[in-house]
UniProtKB/TrEMBL annotation:
Protein name: Transposase DDE domain-containing protein
All residue ranges annotated as the Transposase IS4-like domain in the record: 66-293
InterPro entries for the chain: RNaseH-like_sf, Transpos_IS4, Transposase_11
SUPFAM superfamilies: Ribonuclease H-like
Organism classification: Bacteria, Pseudomonadati, Bacteroidota, Bacteroidia, Marinilabiliales
Keyword ATP-binding in record: no
Pfam families in UniProt: DDE_Tnp_1
Organism: Mariniphaga anaerophila
């Protein structure tokens, strides 16, 4: 924080366009992180998502008849548990107890920004995120097996909301009907099994408590698949209309949200924080999501083939420079020429020959 504030002080002449009369002191910036409610930045993020939603969407279709294809995943940001009480495990010896924040995110498969985001303590079970979602009928949700939640699967099935996930190894079920079987062949992507199964679960009341005196059954579809790299997968879905190959194709699309988290952790400093209380940390997480969203918009607006990491680096370097970012990303000219009327040896970027 001290380095940031000292850096701003050195850039006082370039910060006038932001309406700043002077660079903030370290204590002022720290007070802002501690006392300014992070929910303001949360609401700002979703306003920006709404504003750029149509711009970031593209015309890609998957040949599927769903109203929308959504991806769900989470990523953990490690912290010392002094920030979030009761988080993490007790270490052996004198080590400090580790905890963290977990960022759960729902994105549209044809976009690369979070449509719904929930920040929780790292020890909150992933499946609790599913309860918060408001999904429309005939939509498709794709997520990994950490979100397996049979009660929620039954509710979605009743409302014609479809999902694709991976089945847990310890899942107990009964095979009702086998539709297709196959044999593994090295280097060939193929369906190995397609069958209807039935499993049992305990329903929950409105408070989320399991009703152990009641046991219900749920019929789902299990698809076993081998990809071209000989990796074996077992998928679980409540949709019986699409082909087994389409089930595997949908789960492969989940890699899109993995890439989003990879961008976030590689290009933004989430391995250290500018504040030591929970509000400050949540504020930084929301600021990171806002920055990632705006850079995604800039990258698409510039129609550049430069990688996101390059875009992030250029923005970081030229954030206070009076350069138009989209032109900076579009222009491939690497020539310099002397500034007319400038100081001896002063150079200027040659934009379009100007």
């Amino acid at each position: 924080m001290n380095e940031t504030c000292e850096g701003l002080r050195a850039l006082a002449g370039k910060l006038n366009h932001l309406g700043l009369e002077k660079a903030p002191a370290k204590s002022t910036a720290g007070d802002g992180l501690r006392n300014r409610d992070n929910r303001f930045l949360e609401s700002l993020y979703f306003e920006l998502v709404h504003k750029y939603q149509s711009f970031l969407s593209d015309s890609r279709t998957y040949g599927l008849t769903f109203k929308e294809v959504l991806l769900i995943d989470s990523t953990t940001i490690r912290l010392f548990s002094d920030v979030l009480k009761g988080v993490g495990r007790n270490p052996k010896g004198d080590g400090k107890k580790k905890g963290g924040l977990k960022v759960h995110m729902l994105i549209n498969a044809v976009q690369s920004v979070g449509r719904f985001v929930k920040v929780t303590a790292a020890n909150v079970h992933d499946k609790n995120f599913l309860k918060k979602l408001e999904l429309i009928s005939h939509s498709m949700i794709v997520f990994d097996k950490a979100y397996n939640y049979y009660h929620q699967f039954a509710l979605w099935t009743n409302h014609h909301v479809y999902f694709v996930t991976r089945i847990k190894k310890n899942a107990v079920y009964t095979v009702i009907e086998t539709h297709k079987t196959g044999y593994r062949k090295k280097g060939v992507a193929k369906v190995l099994k397609d069958q209807t199964i039935e499993l049992e679960y305990y329903p929950e009341n409105e408070d989320g408590e399991k009703q152990y005196k009641i046991k219900k059954s749920l019929r789902l579809r299990e698809v076993a698949y081998q990809d071209e790299k000989n990796r074996y997968f077992e998928f679980l879905t409540n949709n019986f209309e699409i082909t087994a190959e389409e089930v595997a194709f949908l789960y492969k699309k989940r890699w899109g949200i993995e890439l989003l988290f990879k961008k976030m952790k590689q290009n933004f400093q989430l391995h250290y924080f500018y504040g030591e209380n929970e509000n400050a940390i949540r504020t930084q997480v929301w600021c990171t999501l806002i920055a990632q969203l705006l850079m995604t918009v800039i990258q698409k607006k510039a129609q550049t083939k430069k990688a996101f990491s390059v875009v992030a680096s250029l923005v970081r370097i030229h954030l206070i420079s009076m350069l138009e970012l989209t032109e900076l990303l579009r222009n491939t000219n690497r020539n310099f020429k002397k500034q007319i009327g400038g100081s001896p040896g002063q150079l200027k970027l040659n934009w379009n020959g100007v």
